[in-house]
Amino acid sequence: MKSLRFAAVCLGAAAILSSLTSCDPEAKLARNITGTWGTTPEKLIDSDAMNATAVRMFQFTPSMTDSKSGDLHMTALVSITNAMPGDSVAIIEPYTVTASGLATISGIWAAIDDDEVSVHFDDSSLEVKVDPAAVMVSVNTLTNATTSSIDSIRPALAASLQQQITTAVRNQVFDIKKLDDIKITKDLMSCEINKHDVTLRRQDEVIK
After folding, report:
1. d(Cα 53, Cα 150) in Å, to the nearest integer?
2. What are φ and ψ of residue 122, in 5° steps?
3. 8 Å CB contact between 84 and 156
4. Fewest 10 Å CB contacts: which of 43, 99, 155, 185?
5. 130-150 residue pLDDT tens
6. What is the Rg, in whole angstroms, of the alpha carbon atoms belonging to the chain?
């Protein structure tokens, strides 16, 4: 009998807690936003000399002690293309260099309204990686001298692209203070980030 009474008390407490959470708009938003969300490709740079796009992944992890906040990890896959003028000294024709970089940063998030989440990133956690072996170079005229010259400068190209990606993601991708006007419908989330409308798709199983 005591066991039945204890079980009934536990079920009652759970029901009350669930009811309180469902009536708390911040807690409800926090529960719905937990998980991983990905954007469609976003234009970072678009000019005659350079073109760059990024796909962002937001991973919202809930706190163990707070139902309205948690850790945030963002990853950006950046594709960048540069038109280079060439180098007469190194006997390199004008060429185009293309590479992909992976940028990551960590921080925290908190639901502060029924449709608003504040975010804060730790700039010291920012990491950007570009693999020199994956740097692709296209030239109009390709000779043996040109090939050997480009191979020799490939690490320098990767370092230059890494710096460009670092600047772009710091200023345009990770410069976020909040997600506003959040609307979540099944596996889609629309929101406003830095005055721009953004649509994200859930990358993991919908949390029920």
Report:
1. 24
2. -90, 105
3. no
4. 185
5. 998 888 887 755 444 445 566
6. 24
